[in-house]
Amino acid sequence: MDDLYPSRREPTPSLLPRHDPVVHGRWAPGAPLSDEQTRFYDTNGYLVLENVFDPAEIALLQSGSMDLLANPAGLDRETIITERGSDEVRSIFAIHAQNELLGRLAADSRIAGVARFLLDDDVYIHQSRLNYKPGFDGKEFYWHSDFETWHVEDGMPRMRALSMSILLAENTANNGPLMVIPGSHRKYLTCVGETPENHYRSSLKKQEYGVPDREMLTALASDHGIVAPTGKAGTVVLFDCNTMHGSNGNITPFPRSNAFFVFNAKANSLVEPFGPKSRRPDFIADRAFTTVDIVKGPLVRRERAA
Amino acid sequence: MDDLYPSRREPTPSLLPRHDPVVHGRWAPGAPLSDEQTRFYDTNGYLVLENVFDPAEIALLQSGSMDLLANPAGLDRETIITERGSDEVRSIFAIHAQNELLGRLAADSRIAGVARFLLDDDVYIHQSRLNYKPGFDGKEFYWHSDFETWHVEDGMPRMRALSMSILLAENTANNGPLMVIPGSHRKYLTCVGETPENHYRSSLKKQEYGVPDREMLTALASDHGIVAPTGKAGTVVLFDCNTMHGSNGNITPFPRSNAFFVFNAKANSLVEPFGPKSRRPDFIADRAFTTVDIVKGPLVRRERAA
């Protein structure tokens, strides 16, 4: 397959054209986003949805997620990522597959239905995780385009994927919220340097390859500005696979956590990585490509059979 | 001298009463702050002053400060503090004594006059510095009350001092601005643990003693909230010596810098440290106690004699 988005090959970075639409579907009445929301997402590469879930649903998601963090036994150990230099859990991967409630959340029409509309195809979950940025010493996430990594390291052919973050705690300007560079998704910033094999083990803690160039970032941020979408628990933040984003650390006492789902179009299923020969494990880059069966209706607590 | 504010002595932290006023002077018409500003400072322990300097003065301060950072030769080497793990300059101390323009700034009636009013006494500069938080990898400053350190390590007897930060670059919510806990200045949070001798060398890079307790910080921040005053270059941020403050790191491309002056009331001049026996050096805790001669009028470029 032709590599439309080569990266980590040249000694200098460059801004290449984007060959794919941002909004793959066509807006029509009845779409799960308004025309205005759709245009905003197209232009800016991100979108904030408020009041998607009702308070009981949010409380359910919060307690379910806290249970997972507090009792990681029963989870595949490989899917648990700790902070650099501590045992504190930073992320748990493959949450849609390991937890019934979070699997139901990923399939919810208010989430997956929006992804299906924007990507104009059946969708599957390329990656899911519960992110937890603890208070007092939550670490930063440096700037990156997810697509650059997914393309080079996982073999995602085209820009036809998006991320949805469901906030499980209030994100303020002060507790290390996601920052995006609006409009950065419309070009493809290549990175320099080759990717070592099995790089993913350390890159989940601290990115060292696929790191965007500082001069390029300065130009992007100067042209487009930086926005940190904030909101109450339950707020949903969507962003395009190629939107440049990152987050500062968090010294406030207030932890920040979210449930994070990456939806990819089925037609954009992974091929072999365009960079290193070895694949990353399935919990980071799914290769089952299982179509999400979209479910309507509220999230409710499921009682287990006695 | 009696120690009204004992700290780093007990195995558990506690919140002690504040024995000193916040606003030592009494407001009257003609004061350098409005009655409303004075009350705000009294209640919240910080205050933001905008449009204090005109654009030419701000440009002068910016170019003068950048010159200092770019050409540290000629400065006392001990006053130059670099980032942990790099040679990048984080702070330059004693700037009022080492640079004519910054000395003039410290004496400006719009700065020193406000300090004199709030502290109701002649003032001297306990400490001054140029702070520089570089873009991309600016490090965090953990929460602390300055007074706790100045009392224990420097022998500042009472709470009759304040800090003024003159922003030399725009502070946004995203580039690691100062964060304060409004109202935290009204109690004294003691810290646990003894202070090692010559602790200052490392503490200027990363604080390890005099660190407030996490549970106490959580209670303070939950009760009072966290505010991050932001503003354009030229904005002045004042805060009381006992206001709990800190800042997150900065991954944005936009550096953050400020000129920072600590004014102390002459009547509150340092005695021997209440903690360790050894004094910190004068560039960190001045013991000349030289009254600031307050100067009125604009900051102007001084041509050197040929």
From TrEMBL, chains A, B:
Q: Does the keyword Glycoprotein apply?
A: no
Q: Name one Pfam family in it.
A: PhyH
Q: Which reaction does it catalyse?
A: L-ectoine + 2-oxoglutarate + O2 = 5-hydroxyectoine + succinate + CO2
Outline the segment boundaries, as ranges, of region: Disordered: 1-21
The UniProt record lists the EC number as: 1.14.11.55
Q: Which PANTHER family match?
A: ECTOINE DIOXYGENASE (PTHR20883:SF48), PHYTANOYL-COA DIOXYGENASE DOMAIN CONTAINING 1 (PTHR20883)
Task: Tell me how this protein assembles.
Answer: Homodimer.
Protein name as annotated: Ectoine hydroxylase
